[in-house]
Amino acid sequence: MARKSSNVTLKDIAAQAGVSHTAVSAALHGTGRISDEKRQHILSVAKQMSYQPRLAAQMLRSRRTGHLGLIICGEDSNDFMDSGFFGPIVSSFIQACEERDVRYHIEFSKENLHSGDGFVPPANFAGGMVDGALVAGYYHQEFAHWLDHENQRPWIGIGETARYYTKNDSRQGIYQVVQHLVALGHQRIAFLHGDVSFNSNEEGLIGFEQACKDFRVDIQPSWVQFIQVLPRREGVEKTAAWARKFLTQPTRPTAVICQGMGIARAVVSVAQQLQLQVPRQLSVLGSGTQAEAERSYPCMAHMQPDYPKIVHQALFMLEQRLAGREVLHPCSLIPANLVWNDTVAPPQV
Length: 349
Fold this sequence. Notes:
The protein is of the alpha/beta class. It has 3 domains: 5-52, lambda repressor-like DNA-binding domains (434 Repressor (Amino-terminal Domain), Orthogonal Bundle); 57-168 and 308-334, 3-Layer(aba) Sandwich (Rossmann fold), CATH 3.40.50.2300; 170-305, Response regulator (Rossmann fold). It has helices at 10-17, 21-29, 36-48, 54-61, 86-100, 123-126, 141-150, 170-184, 199-214, 232-246, 261-273, 290-293, 307-322; strands at residues 67-74, 103-110, 132-136, 155-158, 165-168, 189-193, 224-226, 255-258, 283-287, 301-304, 331-334, 337-339. Helix 5 links the parallel strand 1 and strand 2. The longest helix is centred in the middle third of the chain and has 16 residues, at 199-214. The radius of gyration is 23 Å and the shape is globular.
């Protein structure tokens, strides 16, 4: 007789899949270090055995909704799905919830404080349609106050600091990029960063400054430039103006690090117009997904945040909170993947 799904345990799945109990736990909860191939095999076995995730079972027993939420923060929802940040977060969230067999809601928190409408909490989350939520992006002061003082449901931040959060380790990522460039022979390095009111951009700038100090790279103040990436056209035009000014000087950068793929492509475009060979005469590195890096030629070297792992870790933390368990690591930094495609090379002597 087949075992009832409610009685299937992690040990049962481990035995059927031919792996350890620890590996099964890591695959189902998105923690630990296992290969994607092994993880997919374990998830497939669990599905065949009709395994009911512990979180879902606890929800049913406690008469909760059994639904989780993802709240996307920002002022304009029109650009959300094309974003190099929100798009991967949404797709990773959907995949992770479906793997866990947990129902989900996705809603926007439009935070336009100049509309005159005042702050209105996200409807599904505030109305009890979900038991807990991940909150992705930057949340303004009123929303933060509501989340911490009026809201009664657990939540985990993604991308910005909070009591519980996961995010890309931008400080360490930028630090490693500078280290790699110096090892290739670069000493004249520029950094085009985003708005430092966002924690990830601020951390990236700190990582750049620390790496320059550690590896004895002289920072040229005019080569460290804030670029407002939205609206996109304004960001690209400002980047192009910066590149035309500084890439034509006798002493110019030999490498440019960009916190955004659009501005990295703008630097490459201007360099080509100036007949600078990329990457022999100018190395350029962006930040974003593999798909963004391959949208133009040459394929951009880039820092790629590990969005699936960021979301899996956030969901694991949310699971702990919903189960009433202590979250041992409430602040989780996930290393980015550094991909050295076609736009980084040793500088031409």
